[in-house]
Amino acid sequence: MLWRGRRQSDNVEDDRSSTGGGFGGGGLGGPGGQFRIPIGGRAGGGGLSTIVILVVLYFGLKFLGIDPMQVLGGGGGLLDGTDNSGQITDNSGQGSSAPANDEMKQFVSTVLAETEDVWNGIFQANGMKYEEPTLLLFSGQVRSACGFTTSAAGPFYCPGDHKVYLDTDFFQQLSQQFGASGDFAEAYVIAHEVGHHVQNLTGILPKFNQMRQSMSEADANHMSMQVELQADCFAGVWGHFTAQKGILEKGDLEEALNAAQQIGDDTLQKKMQGYVVPESFNHGTSEQRVRWFKRGFSSGKLSDCDTFNNPI
Q1: DSSP label at residue 275
Q2: Which keywords does this chain's UniProt record carry (predicted)?
Q3: How far apart are CA 306 and CA 182, in angstroms?
Q4: What pLDDT does residue 31 have?
Q5: What angle (nearest 5°) sits at the alpha carbon of residue 145, between those of residues 143 and 151?
Q6: Which one of 97, 104, 136, 159 has the lowest number of neighbouring Cβ atoms within 10 Å?
Q7: How do 141-144 and 147-150 pair as beta strands?
């Protein structure tokens, strides 16, 4: 990925020099509301497809030059989220200082800027304003508006404060423990969490959080998969437009697809415990994660990312 020398986002906070990790975002309480890249999860129940239909309809009508507010009767929804509990083990956690502008921060800031460019363009083309998320770098542990979390849980998005949280040591773990190396594999991780932010802005996560309260664990896990696979598809949409800029190199797409493959629920469970428990899946199998990322990457259309009205 030809990222060097490109614009860097101003929406990156670096809390890695804090002892034992950062405490950005404020707020106490449990970890509810976090959306993670690896595994874990709770979800919400039937009826979320209505929100997705409205989101797809909104964008479709805007492209046709029709005011969707007249058709949908006004309204809209933003903010808040759901619950995912991570299960990845990690050897870090003591916190470490890092240069104020090391290469990893430059890379993360550049990738975040690329997501800003894409999503600002998509939202603006449809008469909407994109609220850019903040990405907070931490080391070891962090307290967000969604609660206290260690780096063992992996990168996550907190709807409560509109922040993506990332311990960059995860990238080393992704490469060494899961065999998913490469800068575009790392970019996919960031783009997936930004995908959750898009879901938050379009009202999908608030509805998700509301509905999960009354669901069985099995139903909750299934809908969690739908939410996570849509975030993978949204990451693919971002990759589609990033590729059009000519900054992807040979092998970059394969890096992202390999990362999606390696963090599928079935692959992770086989690696960590030697067997799989399909009813516990809540992010999607390797095949599903690869397929939905490829779907978004191939078309660049949000309407192709409807995981709620199509078989996943």
Answers
A1: S
A2: Cell projection, Cilium, Flagellum, Membrane, Transmembrane, Transmembrane helix
A3: 28
A4: 35
A5: 35
A6: 97
A7: antiparallel
